[in-house]
Amino acid sequence: MEKKVRKPKPVFKDGAISAESIGKSIANHQSKVGIGGHSIFLGQVRADEIDGKTVAAIEFSAHEEMAQNEIFNIREETFEKFDLTCMHIYHSKGVVNVGEICLFVFTSSAHRKECQAATDYIVEELKKRATIFGREIFEDESHQWKVNN
Q1: What is the number of alpha carbons within 13 Å of residue 116 lying toward its C-beta?
Q2: Which CATH superfamily is domain 12-145 in?
Q3: Share of the chain above pLDDT 70, in %
Q4: Cα–Cα distance between 137 and 54 in angstroms, integer?
Q5: Residue 98: enclosing H or E segment and its boundaries?
Q6: Where are the domains of the chain?
Q7: What is the pLDDT of residues 111-130, one digit of tens each?
Q8: pLDDT, tens digit, for every residue of 68-79?
Q9: Is 78 exposed, middle or buried (0-12, 13-18, 19+ CB in 10 A)?
Q10: Contact at 8 Å (CB) between 91 and 64?
Q11: What's the pLDDT score for residue 37?
Q12: DSSP states of 6-40 as a string?
């Protein structure tokens, strides 16, 4: 059987990722009856306190072409490592306020353990390899570059 060739899909969304778009993505999979489990990771901006200042938002930027290519590589590696039916990855660019969603990873497979492991793998690889940067904006409007952890 010939290997299916996948093409890079756009992953960047301006601003926060809406609950409506997340809900629509989930709803679109109800007709795929071979799926037995979905795993979802939602990255949300926290109101961290750093040196007595509270984060109000994060402004995300990226070397988009480079990041898009690396995320595509992560996607392909994930399909090779795990038996998935489908996968969606979306990341915000621009300003995302505290409490809003900035990362949406959604995997589906016949069995829950496979998609749960794949989702964890994707999130870890994104943090390590994707050229996405976050500038924490504090309530007093000062800012600093975010350290991933």
Answers
A1: 5
A2: Molybdopterin biosynthesis MoaE subunit (3.90.1170.40)
A3: 95
A4: 9
A5: none
A6: 12-145
A7: 999 999 999 999 999 999 99
A8: 999 999 999 999
A9: buried
A10: no
A11: 95
A12: P-----EEESPBPHHHHHHHHHTTTT-TT--EEEE
Report the predicted TM-score, pTM, of the whole model to 2 decimal places. 0.91
**Amino acid at residue number 144:** Q
Strands (E) across the chain are located at 12-14, 37-44, 49-50, 53-62, 86-97, 101-109, 132-138, 143-145
- pLDDT tens for each residue of the chain, 149 residues long: 555 666 778 899 999 999 999 999 999 998 888 999 999 999 999 999 999 999 999 999 999 999 999 999 999 999 999 999 999 999 999 999 999 999 999 999 999 999 999 999 999 999 999 999 999 999 999 989 987 66
**Among candidates 29, 25, 64, 59, which has minimal Cα distance to 45?**
59
Q: What does the DSSP 8-state code read for residue 82?
A: S
Residue type, 91: H
**DSSP three-state, residue 78:** helix
